[in-house]
Amino acid sequence: MATIINLLVGGPTANYPADLTAIPGDWVGADRGALRLVKRGIQPVMVVGDFDSIDEAELQTVKQALAGTIIVKPDQDHTDTQLAVKSIFEQLNPTAVHIYGATGGRLDHLLANLWLVLDPVFRQWAPQIKLIDKQNSVQFFLPGEYEIQKEADKKYLAFVPMMPMHLTLSDEKYQLKAAHNDYPISWASNEFSGDTGHFSFDAGVLAVIQSKDDQVSD
């Protein structure tokens, strides 16, 4: 049976999906993400971080609501998100980890979150990791042939080779045949031709993004 662990990290709340409490599955909080879970009435099964972004009183609030383990980051060699992802896979053994709060705000944090799967330590888990915000979902793939399902609320589809590869898009609106890249590139603004799409590639790590426009007034 599939086991999904949701991880909330410290990105801007404006990028969250509408209601975190409606998302099924257990939750883990990384640093300030742990406090934000507790304030929404969500009891985390694990919290991770050096907790330098919350004060002592807030940390005590988190500890009182905690249903499981607290892991204090021992050094600055890893980000809170990296330590949380590693701890989740090693201790909770989920089928998938869905990460929220990983986009928006500081660009250095965004890049660290996107590039996490390139680290050999984390690459083994790349196909199980998904980044989600109110406009986007990002999945990661290792070399092979794949079929993906269109998300009902998303219009756009992007393929982002993060390392050198030959990429084939066989039945999307805009197709490729063994297109080679030497550096990261975003094949953006593609679309599904139906409810599924097929693609294949031979090396590296590929990010696939489903997205929609932000509904904001001018």
UniProtKB/TrEMBL annotation:
Q: Would the keyword Zinc-finger be found if you checked this record's keyword annotation?
A: no
Q: Does the record bear Nucleotide-binding in its keywords?
A: yes
Task: Identify the InterPro entries for this entry.
Answer: Thi_PPkinase, Thiamin_PyroPKinase_B1-bd, TPK, TPK_catalytic, TPK_catalytic_sf
Span of domain Thiamin pyrophosphokinase thiamin-binding: 144-207
What EC number is given for this enzyme? 2.7.6.2
Q: Which domain of life is it from?
A: Bacteria
One matching Pfam family is TPK_B1_binding
Class of the enzyme per the UniProt entry, highest EC level? transferase
Entry keywords, A to Z:
ATP-binding, Kinase, Nucleotide-binding, Transferase
Identification of the protein by name: Thiamine diphosphokinase
